[in-house]
Structures are given as structure tokens and as C-alpha cells.
Amino acid sequence: MTGVSPPTAGRRSLANRIDAATTRQLLDRFRDWLRERHLPITRQRDLVAQAVFATSGHLSVDAIHRRLRGLGHKVGTATIYRSLDVLVQAGLVRAHDFGEGYRRYEPMFSAGQHGHLICGRCGTVTEFSTDRMERALALIADEHEFHHQRHRVELHGLCRACREADIGAIVRAGRTR
Length: 177
Ligand SMILES: [Zn+2]
Ligand SMILES: [Zn+2]
Known about the structure:
This protein has 177 residues and is an alpha+beta fold. The chain has two domains: 13-109, Arc Repressor Mutant, subunit A (Orthogonal Bundle); 112-177, 2-Layer Sandwich (Dna Ligase, domain 1), CATH 3.30.1490. The protein is 46% helix and 15% strand. The protein is built from six helices and six strands; from the N terminus they run ααβααββββαβα. A hairpin with a 5-residue loop joins strand 4 and strand 5. Helix 1 packs antiparallel against helix 2 and helix 2 (43-53) crosses helix 4 (77-89). The longest helix has 17 residues, at 20-36. One zinc ion is lined by residues 58, 106, 114, 116, 127.
């Protein structure tokens, strides 16, 4: 009655940890991009870029702010927003609006298309490969003689941890009766 189903077969989470070389590479690309446009490579821009590039997560401005503060760097949120805009323009960061009332940012090292599973309770964002779906979408677009440029796949619901917490609560409630 709780609608619990076994984990979906074939689900694949993309790597969560980014190696230092990848972070370095993105950072170099960002600096090159700024240089080519004669834009200043400020320390604050660099710090924001590093904070985003060091994770494969989907960070809010608040999370970036906290991360920088934790490392002892004082960067204001307005500066973080502006730096993120530049990173998005440079094509190195993707901005997401998951309908939470704020945006989240992720580095664009993952060339492969992926979808997002967004937990409405704890806010966890899980990525999954959309390879099979890409093929299906290409066929659908063909059928309609539609030139497909882009799409986004977002599933909203409850993550496994939150569902398990629910089930645990139901079991505990059952025991006390
Ligand atoms: Zn959750
Ligand atoms: Zn993602």
C-alpha cells in the first residue's frame, strides 16, 4: 500500500567524486576563456569555479557560499551569482531550476546526457543515464519530422532513503500498537 517497488534495473549513477585532474582541466578552460575575452581572472571567480568544479553535485548558491566559508574564503553571494553567470556563459557550468525556488549549478564535465531524480523531501539529486531514452526520443522526433535540439528529463518524488525512513516509521508504529 506504500507503492514500494524494487530498485529499477539498469539504473546507473554517474561518478560522484571528481578527480583533481578533471577539476584542473575545467579550471584551465575557464581561465583560457576569460583570457580570450580579456576578462579579469579574479581570485573570487577562481574560487567559485573551483568550488563548483570540485564536485559532481548540483550545488545551490548557498551551498557554494558555505563551502567557500568552510575553506576560510569570504565571497559574497552577489559575487557568487555573477561568477556563476560567467561560468554558464563559458559553457562550463549548467544551471538547473528544479522547481525548489532556487537554482542549482553543476559542472559540465559529464558530456553524456543524463536525467535527474529529485527528492521533494530531502532535496537529493541523483543522476541517471538516459542513453536508452535518447534513442527513443530520436525516433519520436524523426516520426514527427521534428528537429530535436535539446530536452531535459526530471523525475520528482521521494528518494530511497526517505522512503525507507517512511517504511521504518510505519513498522515502528505497528510495533507499539
Ligand atoms: Zn529524500
Ligand atoms: Zn546533473
